[in-house]
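Good morning C.,

I know you're traveling, so I'll keep this short. The sequence:
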Amino acid sequence: MKDVSRKPKTLREAVASAFVRMRKDTVSMVVEGKSPKGNPVEVARVAGVMAAKDTQRIIPFCHPVRVDFVSIDFEAKDDGVTATCTVKGVDRTGVEMEALCGASVAALTLFDMLKGVDDALSISDISVVRKKGGKSDFLETFEKPLKGAVVVVSDSVAQKKRKDTSGQAIVRRLEEANVEVCSFTVVADEIDTIERELRMLLDKGIDIIFTTGGTGLGPRDVTVEAVRRIIEREVPGITEAMRIHGFERTPWAMLSRGIAGVKGNTLIVTLPGSSRGVEESLDAIWPSVLHIFPMMWGGGHPGNR
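The tokens, ready to paste straight into the viewer:
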């Protein structure tokens, strides 16, 4: 199975359909709810719902997902009946396989219910009609690449006693999202030094600044205090999302004092000092956090643009 443990949960929806070709008089039987075995539509509907809910037991490498809604609908045509399955769920992976399984089994059940009266039955056009959900629905594109900066806050890294890994993890994520990394600096855990570095980056017109380190409860963890001196508006939902995502993986995530906020049109986000903490925090918010920029620029949400 593919590892999806790093993904955050989002609302997923998929619609799939399958077509059962049959004679015109057989279509009439389906519409009337008649067959030698009973009402074909109602039996096929129940079978399709059961199949969608049990997909992980039928398809070997399909992830078990939380299925919150399943519907099976039928549309009669001159030469057959289309079975359509809609599935919704909040989970880390999509529900298109559940929709395909539901539509397929509904079609197979119609076939079984009608095979005694129609020897020309066939099943075709099994496909995903549409799907949505996951990070791909929340991607932002920019005509001009955003300018990003990374600030590693660590006494030991600044003194070259330890090699940085968390800052490099942020750089990789920024580059993957086509964010131009304009600055990468390492500073000691000194509140005035941190504040001075952040203000310098603001003067350079940086769009997004990530810090790593100094968000805990150690005696020299002062990054949060430095950022509080600068930001004009806090965005607590960003750090709430990071802590919730992290807490599902380690209870120590609740000890993070991370903060996020904006100064002008610049977003500043404080991340933990460990590379694992950085990766998990970015998994929670990236790239959907970039939607903050069209909002700050007056664009609003997609439905309002």
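Safe travels,
E.
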